[in-house]
Design goal:
Elements: E1 11-16, E2 23-28, E3 31-37, E4 51-52, H1 58-68, H2 85-94, E5 103-104, H3 105-111, H4 118-126, E6 139-140, H5 153-164
Parallel strand pairs: 1-4, 5-6
Antiparallel strand pairs: 1-2, 2-3
Length: 174
Amino acid sequence: MTATHPRTTTRQHTVVDSPYGPLTLVATDGVLAGLYMTGQRHRPPEETFGESDPRPFTEAARQLDAYFAGELRTFDLPLHLDGTPFQRSVWAQLQLIPYGETRSYGELAENLGKPGASRAVGLANGKNPVGIIVPCHRVIGASGSLTGYGGGLDRKQRLLAFEKGTENDTPALF
């Protein structure tokens, strides 16, 4: 009888600086699986991030630097998005929202063919494990209000202002 061994998963992390505070990047088997801000809601416990090792994050860090410098509008990185099929479908929709634009939770629900699922879309949006790169900050309330953001409404406001080129009108809080 042959014993089967469960596949082991390697997790690594590093911390990079940003204009919005330190960002913790987490990889699963060398693929970006998390981007977490300080004080972020739904931030996993630090002990789940694995060993500190910057090597898997060279390209992610380069693209984040280019984004924050205003030189990159669309990220092109392999992602390991661990979530339910519905959550992954919402996160896929987030990646279709163009730089500098916003969509409402209702619009995303309609795009998914589930027009009554605005609240479920909001919950999935809040569980996005790779903020900024999967741009959950681009989702707003139906009235145009800045509703919930795992990284805090102040960061959401600053990210949106940055993408619209009006960041200098927004006070820095970090």
